[in-house]
UniProtKB/TrEMBL annotation:
Positions of region (Disordered): 1-36
Residue stretches of biased makeup (Basic residues): 1-14
Superkingdom assignment: Eukaryota
Pfam family, any one: PhyH
Protein name: Phytanoyl-CoA dioxygenase
Organism encoding this protein: Durusdinium trenchii
Length: 335
């Protein structure tokens, strides 16, 4: 690799010299909360209880009411600006050298001989891990096993350059009919295969102007759409068929409106997997970069989940910061 590369007129930083390996041994809450970039945590152990959940929710700025009502929320940045820049540079190098055929090379897989850049991107999850562990009562972590295509061993590195056209033009991005809910690529063709189910989608914004404008390659989503789909899915006895035009197929003329997510570099986005979403055009002069965990799932696909809280939680009521909410009595049908 040349010592200096240029990408969109900017110099790409040299790789961060970190050991190319995943952290070994169980990690404590204190260690995870202040862990450095570079090595993704693969083993984490902590007791799940309401007190710890409340503490971690406050630490990351989790807005429980927003998540319950809208199906997403913004989490405060836990990485310093310098660390975000290191992650951005790593994302640029990974994308420029990607040979993946999935979605123009956006998908990055964790392998036994992964490069320091790839490991650094996976480690963006580390400081949010104690919160996610409490929220979901445990998640399968990157590097916890050797499954090269397991959802926990992949991230999506989305880079939307100036001129990116988005799913449609800006005026029509408000229609949820241009959005989707995620489905495993192997189960997208033909439409009608059982819907895949994940617990949440989690991503970190690395660059762009999406905080101040809605046409900078923003993530768009339809607030509350996950609840409307859940209600429609209840009509099925068994597995729910997936369709690319999910709202048109299941909600008809209801068509919940999508809106642009406003988030700054360093902030994280937590989204219910069943929230309809898409990506708008980038009319700005800056590159919008976003690293997304494809899925953070509990156990395997045979396990049952409720819409908001794990079904096996001892209480379906939780208190987060000063906000109390109850999980909805609707089960998401599992694949």
């Amino acid at each position: 690799m040349p010592k200096k590369q240029k990408l969109q007129g900017r110099k790409v930083q040299k790789p961060n010299k970190l050991a190319a390996k995943v952290s070994a041994g169980p990690t404590t809450t204190a260690h995870a909360a202040r862990s450095p970039l570079g090595k993704p945590i693969s083993h984490y152990k902590a007791e799940c209880n309401l007190k710890s959940f409340r503490k971690e929710a406050k630490r990351v700025g989790f807005d429980a009411q927003a998540y319950l009502e809208n199906g997403y929320c913004i989490l405060r940045p836990l990485w310093r600006d310098k660390e975000v820049q290191l992650a951005l540079a790593a994302a640029q190098r990974v994308r420029s050298g990607s040979r993946s055929s999935d979605n123009q090379g956006e998908f990055v897989f964790l392998r036994g001989s992964s490069t320091p850049d790839k490991l650094l991107l996976f480690s963006l999850l580390n400081r949010y891990l104690p919160f996610l562990h409490q929220l979901l009562e445990g998640i399968v972590l990157p590097g916890s096993n050797n499954s090269p295509y397991g959802h926990h061993n992949q991230v999506q590195v989305a880079v939307k350059r100036p001129g990116f056209e988005g799913y449609t033009d800006l005026a029509r991005m408000s229609s949820s009919r241009v959005g989707h809910i995620d489905q495993s690529s192997a189960k997208q063709t033909p439409p009608g295969k059982p819907t895949s189910n994940y617990s949440v989608l989690f991503g970190v914004v690395l660059s762009g102007e999406t905080k101040t404008r809605s046409d900078a390659g923003n993530l768009y989503l339809a607030p509350g759409s996950y609840q409307k789909l859940a209600k429609a899915f209840q009509a099925f006895q068994g597995k729910v068929p997936w369709h690319p035009n999910i709202t048109e197929h299941y909600l008809g003329e209801e068509d919940p409106k999508m809106e642009a997510v406003r988030a700054s570099p360093g902030e994280a986005i937590l989204m219910h997997h069943q929230t309809v979403h898409g990506v708008g055009p980038n009319h700005s002069n800056t590159v919008q970069s976003f690293v997304e965990r494809i899925s953070l799932f509990i156990g395997d696909y045979s396990e049952s989940l409720s819409l908001v809280c794990p079904a096996n939680h001892p209480s379906l009521q939780r208190t987060v910061s000063m906000c109390t909410f109850e999980s909805l009595p609707v089960d998401v049908l599992m694949d």
